[in-house]
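Batch job 17 of 40 flagged for manual review because the log was empty.
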Amino acid sequence: ERILDAAEAEIAEAGVAGATMAAIAVRAGCSRATVYAYFPNRHQLRLAVVNRGAVRVAREVVGATATIADPGHRLTEALLRSVEAVRSTPTLAAWFRPAEQGYAHELAHSSQVVDAVTSGFVEALGGDAEDQALRAQWIVRVVISLLTAPGRDQAEERALVERIVTPGLLATTNERA
């Protein structure tokens, strides 16, 4: 946990590409060898950091939207709150700085990030396991899209989610066929 905390701080300050194992070790108060004992390479450490952050965001979003009865409204709010939570979390926001956006693809393909979304609010939408997995992957990609190519303002982003994304995500497999 101390290494992950140090990595979060270093990524927030130096960026994803600039966060080195040596700098993280200094922040954690340990040797580079100790960091490598827990994380075999920088890629694995970066994924651990972002996965931990994604799980935190998913828990926050689920908690904040759990009482919304309407599935469409809950999904819309969950998506928009996820985007805002990432933007307001320095470690996660670092992945979407213009110079760092190439790293965003790691998030879209991270099973832990997708699992956090699935267990958070996709299960409540129903459907079989395959349908839920596809929805979770799409939600992660929509959030990443809004983070890497933001709308002109929050109203435009809300309109995109309410009119395009939410209806598609709520559609069942049979309705799409």
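Reviewer: the log was empty due to a logging misconfiguration, but the result itself is present. The radius of gyration is 17 Å. Unflagging and moving on to job 18.
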